[in-house]
Amino acid sequence: MEKQEALIEYCLRLGDNSLILGHRISEWCGHGPILEEDIALTNIALDLVGQARTLLTYAGEVEGKGRTEDDLAYLRQVREYRNCLLLEQENGDFARTIVRQFLFDSYHVPFLEALRSSTDTTLAAFAEKSLKEATYHLRHSSEWMIRLGDGTEESKTRVQGALNELWMYSGELFETDEVESVLQKEKIAPNMDAIKKTWTTNVAGILELATLTQPEAGWMQSGGRTGKHSELLGYILAELQYVQRSYPGCEW
Questions:
Q1: Is-contact 9 178, C-beta < 8 A?
Q2: End-to-end CA gap in the chain
């Protein structure tokens, strides 16, 4: 695999992670449990969509075929998306949304910290800016994990149940293949082993404070990064792409 091909794929993976999770979080707008949390979730969604815009724009530039961020966000088919399966999972109740966010945030912060040292100046600058947002996201989701886990019997049951269900999707965040190998040789992409160690330590610490039980390590679900998704992504794209599919090329 050539460096250019690997870089395009890498940017799509990172961009799609932020795009799909941002869209999922945006579904909470107007439905948050309290007004303050409604605003917080909406802002997190905006941060993630902003990150997706930067990465998809860069993917289009590297590709050199004239595709814009909108083309990549709205005009690809399901199998062309590269987001991890964790991020397309349904919101469910508030506890499930927080668990999904926490698992991702705990990965995202150390990943961006490492990406700041990338020899690709665009990715390094992106990481520097996005790290400020991701750090807030992690603090937000961590605090809620503790509040829910060490809260009422019902909140603890809900958050533990969500953790048990979503844990099997966490392993895909750290998978590596030829794409990463090519870019790691060029010192563009960070080593995922060190990031996983940081993730494991942080997650274990928060779960202990939340009096939650960490699920046992075992088989992990994967495939999203290579375009093998659940049916859930199809429903997301049906809503996300509706306007551009119905009115091609429209601007507003």
A1: no
A2: 38
Q: What is the pLDDT of residues 182-204, one digit of tens each?
A: 999 999 999 999 999 999 999 99
Range 244-251, long-range pairs (CB < 8 A, 24+ positions):
244/70, 244/74, 244/75, 245/74
Distances (CA, A) of 92 to 9, 97, 145, 221: 30, 7, 16, 19
Question: How much is the pLDDT for 35?
Answer: 87
Contacts for 40 with CB less than 8 Å, ≥ 6 apart: 32, 140
Ordered structural domains, the chain, with CATH? 3-246 (1.20.1260.10)
* Res 249: pLDDT: 81
Q: Which two tokens stand for residue 181?
A: 């190998």
Whole-model pTM: value is 0.96
